[in-house]
């Protein structure tokens, strides 16, 4: 009896991903549940107050980033009286826009936490204080799209592009749409010598007759803030500003701080002009914590399945000796489709989390087409079915593409001719994905066989596709690419139906069972 080899590429890759996943789980669990202390009082450090206490929270605006020496009633934005620290609160106000803000000078919000009915004007009443800017200077926004068949002359268009280019380099004032106030509701007692470094960094400790205490941490959360959410300050007299108080646990604070540092590192590596970090930030902060945790786990599985699919796809084609049961036109179509999709994603400034696998698929399809070209289409039944399906596909698809291209050129706005071309081509790929797979489906029907297909690859890709359905609602991507995730589900179900309809019969020479991956 032959000994089964468990030291395969797939098993080793799976083990590596499994160990990495376990390490990630342990790391996040330790951040969520920091070590506490229950020993002698003189060795511990306790919170200054009970998180169940009620306090007053007041918010003032000021032109200075330092705490104002005098608080004026006209600068008061919000007051929460005798508020429970564990309850959320929100208020939307119409903030007056001053000439100072239009001149791109910073405006700040000062948040004070005091005992109930205590004035923040008295220094000794202030339990904790935080400051944040509510305005920001960033690159001016401009509309870079236009109808390509507009009546404007080429000279006018050239002037418009010059104006837009100079405007893009100019800085304009913006208002942050929200001030999100966070108080860390940490009631843990820590050993003074073993406090986790990330907690000790923000901890403000002081000695009291009852032992060492630490002040509560309050900060303004801006992890959610991405450039497209900023409100431009133009000629408006008022803009809406949302003031929100939301408590946060020490565990979630540590995880958010780690993620924020990672996003800042991505921006440092890719540059300030890169939108990759902002896309990731928007995905992370716009998702519920439970769904976000599931997404991290599923992302690991998705990456593993992609690696295994690439590996098995290359292995399958490297081992092929002929093209019996396989469509040469389908292989060629897949290369064209993957290349157009990669160009479309790049043109839409999609993040590398989506773009990188698309580029990888282009290289895989180049290898598959090279191999298919070397093998040739020797089987007459396969070749005739492939040619017939390709002929009808061209007849059906060409008028649809020409009609949509004309409609888009006349009524849709584009950044330029290249954007129009790639958008029309991508629309044909996304919308006509079923039609472009017709040659392979028709060959399966003619041969009454699906044995020649790489079913391991289909299985891995199908699992990845179902995972893509989850990512479609989380990760920022073009709407057509989002819809294509659900289209791929249906394509796989069609192949699955043919698999059930045409069971493998190894007695038939055309099945080629010995060639299965």
Summarize the topology.
Elements: H1 9-32, E1 44-47, E2 54-62, E3 76-84, E4 89-96, H2 99-102, E5 108-114, E6 128-133, E7 135-139, H3 154-169, E8 171-175, E9 178-183, E10 190-191, H4 197-202, E11 205-208, E12 211-214, E13 218-221, E14 231-232, E15 238-245, H5 250-270, H6 276-285, H7 289-318, H8 328-347, H9 352-375, H10 380-411, H11 417-431, H12 433-436, H13 438-447, H14 455-471, H15 479-501
Parallel strand pairs: 1-12, 9-15
Antiparallel strand pairs: 1-10, 2-3, 2-5, 4-15, 5-6, 7-8, 8-14, 9-13, 11-12
Summarize the model shown.
The chain has helices at residues 9-32, 99-102, 154-169, 197-202, 250-270, 276-285, 289-318, 328-347, 352-375, 380-411, 417-431, 433-436, 438-447, 455-471, 479-501; strands at residues 44-47, 54-62, 76-84, 89-96, 108-114, 128-133, 135-139, 171-175, 178-183, 190-191, 205-208, 211-214, 218-221, 231-232, 238-245. The chain has 517 residues and is of the alpha+beta class. Strands 10-1-12-11 form a four-stranded mixed β-sheet, with no helix packed on it. The chain has a four-stranded antiparallel β-sheet with strand order 3-2-5-6, with no helix packed on it. Strands 4-15-9-13 form a four-stranded mixed β-sheet, with no helix packed on it.
């Amino acid at each position: 009896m032959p000994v089964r080899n468990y030291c395969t590429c797939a098993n080793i890759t799976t083990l590596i991903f499994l160990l990495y996943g376990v390490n990630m789980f342990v790391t996040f669990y330790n951040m969520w549940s920091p070590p506490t202390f229950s020993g002698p009082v003189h060795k511990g450090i306790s919170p200054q107050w009970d998180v169940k206490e009620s306090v007053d929270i007041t918010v003032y605006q000021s032109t200075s980033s330092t705490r104002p020496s005098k608080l004026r009633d006209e600068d008061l934005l919000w007051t929460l009286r005798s508020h429970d620290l564990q309850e959320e609160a929100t208020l939307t106000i119409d903030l007056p826009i001053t000439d100072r803000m239009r001149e791109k000078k910073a405006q700040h919000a000062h948040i004070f936490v005091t005992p109930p009915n205590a004035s923040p004007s008295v220094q000794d009443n202030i339990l904790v204080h935080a400051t944040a800017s509510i305005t920001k200077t960033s690159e001016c926004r401009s509309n870079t799209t236009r109808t390509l068949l507009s009546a404007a002359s080429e000279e006018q268009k050239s002037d418009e592009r010059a104006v837009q280019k100079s405007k893009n380099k100019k800085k304009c004032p913006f208002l942050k749409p929200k001030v999100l106030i966070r108080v860390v509701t940490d009631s843990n007692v820590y050993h003074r010598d073993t406090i986790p470094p990330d907690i000790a960094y923000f901890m403000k400790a002081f000695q009291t007759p009852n032992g060492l205490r630490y002040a509560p941490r309050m900060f303004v959360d801006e992890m959610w803030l991405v450039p497209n959410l900023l409100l431009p300050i133009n000629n408006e007299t008022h803009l809406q500003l949302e003031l929100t108080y939301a408590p946060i646990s020490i565990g979630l604070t540590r995880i958010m701080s780690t993620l924020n540092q990672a996003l800042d590192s991505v921006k440092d590596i890719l540059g300030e002009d890169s939108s990759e970090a902002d896309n990731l930030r928007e995905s992370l902060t716009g998702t519920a914590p439970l769904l976000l945790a599931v997404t991290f786990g599923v992302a690991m599985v998705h990456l593993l399945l992609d690696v295994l699919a690439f590996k098995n796809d290359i292995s399958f084609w490297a081992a092929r000796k002929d093209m019996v049961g396989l469509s040469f036109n389908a292989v060629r179509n897949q290369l064209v489709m993957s290349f157009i999709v990669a160009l479309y994603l790049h043109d839409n400034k999609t993040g590398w989390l989506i773009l990188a696998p698309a580029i990888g698929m282009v290289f895989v399809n180049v290898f598959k087409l090279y191999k298919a070209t070397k093998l040739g289409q020797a089987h007459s039944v396969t070749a005739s079915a492939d040619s017939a399906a390709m002929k009808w596909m061209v007849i059906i698809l060409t008028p649809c593409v020409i009609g949509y291209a004309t409609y888009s050129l006349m009524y849709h706005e584009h950044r330029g001719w290249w954007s129009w071309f790639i958008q029309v081509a991508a629309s044909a790929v996304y919308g006509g994905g079923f039609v472009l797979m017709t040659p392979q489906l028709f060959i399966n029907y003619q041969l009454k066989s699906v044995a020649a297909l790489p079913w391991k690859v289909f299985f891995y890709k199908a699992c990845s596709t179902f995972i893509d359905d989850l990512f479609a609602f989380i990760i920022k991507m073009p709407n057509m690419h989002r819809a294509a995730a659900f289209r791929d589900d249906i394509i796989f179900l069609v192949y699955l139906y043919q698999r059930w309809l045409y069971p493998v019969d190894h007695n038939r020479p055309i099945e080629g069972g010995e060639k299965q991956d």
